[in-house]
Write a structure and sequence with these properties.
- With 135 residues, the protein is of the alpha+beta class.
- It is built from 4 helices and 5 strands.
- The N and C termini lie far apart (35 Å).
């Protein structure tokens, strides 16, 4: 679970969670959280004009704004390579992944922020504006 900080620069909604002084101190000292910025998992994480965008990236930006945490994208790898990097400790976060038994030893999962049956997902992707992403 992620917490949303009291010193948010994001004013869209009131903060639902308050960080303790200990948590705020930790946020100030922790290294940037390295995350897999996969460019082929539209609409969650994909590349547009050389920039990784998508639902997952939007969530990380909101968490950063509300908590003070810093995130660092790691780009240029396949999904399987990202899984290996998690196991090696080179990546801290996979923002878009289904629970897999082979990763349970290396990861702690949050609740899903999106659940969509695969056939419904592909139907949506074949429609505009996402259709161009399948080419």
């Amino acid at each position: 679970m992620f917490f949303l900080g009291q010193h948010s620069r994001c004013h869209r909604k009131p903060n639902l969670y308050r960080l303790t002084d200990t948590e705020l101190d930790w946020v100030k000292t922790v290294d940037p959280i390295r995350y897999a910025a996969n460019d082929g998992v539209a609409p969650f994480s994909f590349e547009v004009d050389g920039k990784i965008v998508g639902y997952s990236i939007d969530y990380l930006q909101l968490i950063a704004e509300r908590s003070g945490l810093k995130f660092q994208p790691v780009v240029g790898f396949s999904s399987e390579e990202y899984f290996i990097k998690v196991q090696q400790g080179d990546i801290d976060l996979l923002p878009f992944v289904r629970q897999r038994g082979d990763l349970d030893e290396f990861m702690v999962y949050t609740s899903a922020y999106h659940v969509e049956p695969p056939d419904r997902f592909m139907h949506l992707m074949r429609q505009t504006p996402f259709k161009r992403l399948l080419n």
